[in-house]
Specification:
By secondary structure, the chain is mostly helical. The protein has seven helices and three strands; from the N terminus they run ααααββααβα.
Length: about 180
């Protein structure tokens, strides 16, 4: 996961550990342990990792992506309220998701109350609308720096359309976020 993240999705390998162990690799002058791998020093992955690190060092990066996440979560809460949905919106920073259950959610056991069937059906319908959300129970969503406010608004409209269609005639209850 570290390599995948540090190169922003491009092929990259990463190995981390205590200094005394890392110095055992043959990449260190006195190391005797072979260190080899498909993506070691791969130019494309290294360029992607350097560009990613440079972008993440810019404080404006986090302000922008956190603002998009807040916009998404507030929009989802508004939709849940308007549709009188039994739902709890959660997330932090660029992460967002809607659990179809009442709060509070304080631990993993609380998540087991999520309406898994509804959750997966909702995400499948979002896929049909061109919005990628893994159709697996409890999986979260992430916004990236390539997303814009227009993308968030488009996603929120798709969410509202899908949830409206799914809840027509269904008994629902409003939940406030934990």
């Amino acid at each position: 996961a570290l390599g995948k993240a540090m190169a922003n999705g491009y092929p990259m390998a990463a190995l981390c550990g205590r200094r005394d162990l890392m110095e055992q690799f043959n990449t260190h002058p006195n190391g005797g342990v072979l260190f080899a791998g498909t993506y070691n020093g791969h130019a494309l992955g290294c360029a992607a990792a350097l560009a990613t690190i440079e972008t993440l060092e810019n404080p404006e990066t986090y302000a922008r992506i956190f603002a998009l996440g807040t916009r998404m979560r507030l929009g989802l809460e508004s939709i849940a309220t308007r549709l009188n949905l039994k739902a709890t919106v959660a997330g932090f920073g660029s992460v967002f998701l809607t659990y179809f259950q009442e709060g509070p959610i304080e631990c993993y056991d609380d998540l087991l109350r999520n309406d898994a069937e509804f959750f997966v059906a909702y995400r499948r319908r979002m896929l049909e609308r061109g919005i990628f959300m893994l159709p697996m129970n409890l999986k979260r969503n992430h916004l990236g720096l390539s997303h814009t406010e227009a993308h968030v608004d488009h996603t929120l409209q798709a969410c509202e359309d899908v949830l409206t269609a799914m809840t027509t005639g269904r008994s629902t209850v409003v939940s406030t976020p934990a």
